[in-house]
TrEMBL record:
Coiled-coil ranges (or none): none
Record organism: Champsocephalus gunnari
PROSITE patterns membership: IG_LIKE
Name this polypeptide is given: Ig-like domain-containing protein
One record GO biological process: cell-cell adhesion
Length: 255
């Protein structure tokens, strides 16, 4: 009995090592309910997780469509080493690959959706040895106008963009004003010492008189262009001396 149990454990260990016990490790995730305005493009998002390493040469991704009205299920898209868009049916030239296998993304884009696209879209991924697991479903609906929630999101996005631009403009204008104010303050500090310079003779009349006498004591000789010093004698003294010499001459004549 123990021998059989040991053999079974050995077999299970070998299967686990080879990956054969991980066939149900595939999990696929989709966005659930999706709405799109008639005539627009929409992305059907599908991601997956696999317990095995991703092999881009062996992974298989398939999209199928089940309409709301009774009808047969039809293929929408197929991927195996490269994308294979449908060659016929209502999705011909209306589906493009938007996924990344190594990034575990199996999304597609429906172009210019129509009301006939209303229905359920099924995303299935196989990554051998993970060939079984969950599948993702998207209930898709085409509408004439966007719903209130979508309009609200759009308005918030536009309002956020405008608010960001306004904030940037306010910051830019504030920086310019601060820079201009700083330059004006610097210019005012440079001009202040110049304005504070005063005439040294205002508060010292004696100094002003001395400067005036110094300036008037210089005269220019017109003959040779040289500057000579003016006589510093008092004119009144010269006039007083003149008559005394004449009186001396008169005294001599009288003698």
């Amino acid at each position: 009995m123990c021998v059989k149990g040991l053999c079974l454990l050995t077999v299970l260990s070998g299967l686990a090592a080879s990956g054969m016990l991980q066939v149900s490790g595939m999990h696929v995730y989709t966005s659930g309910d999706v709405e799109a305005v008639n005539g627009t493009d929409v992305r059907l998002k599908c991601t997956f997780q696999s317990s095995a390493s991703i092999n881009p040469d062996s992974i298989v991704i398939s999209w199928s469509f089940r309409p709301l009205k009774p009808g047969r299920e039809q293929s929408v898209f197929h991927y195996q080493q490269k994308p294979y868009p449908p060659l016929e049916g209502i999705f011909r030239k209306r589906v493009s690959w938007a996924g990344d296998v190594m990034g575990r993304d199996a999304s597609i884009i429906l172009q210019q959706v129509k009301f006939t696209y209303n229905g359920t879209y099924i995303c299935q991924v196989k990554n051998p040895p993970d060939v079984h697991g969950t599948v993702g479903e998207i209930r898709f609906r085409v509408v004439t106008t966007a719903s209130f929630s979508e309009l609200l999101l759009l308005a918030l996005a536009i309002g956020g963009g405008i608010a960001a631009v306004v904030i940037l403009l306010i910051i830019f204008v504030s920086c310019r004003r601060c820079k201009t104010k700083t330059l004006r303050q610097l210019e005012g500090n440079e001009e202040a010492p110049r304005k504070e310079r005063k005439d040294p003779t205002v508060c010292h009349p004696g100094r002003a008189l001395h400067l005036y006498l110094s300036e008037t004591s210089m005269e220019i000789d017109s003959s040779d262009g040289m500057i000579s010093e003016a006589s510093t004698k008092d004119p009144s003294s010269s006039e007083s001396e003149g008559p005394s010499s004449d009186e001396e001459e008169d005294d001599d004549d009288s003698d």
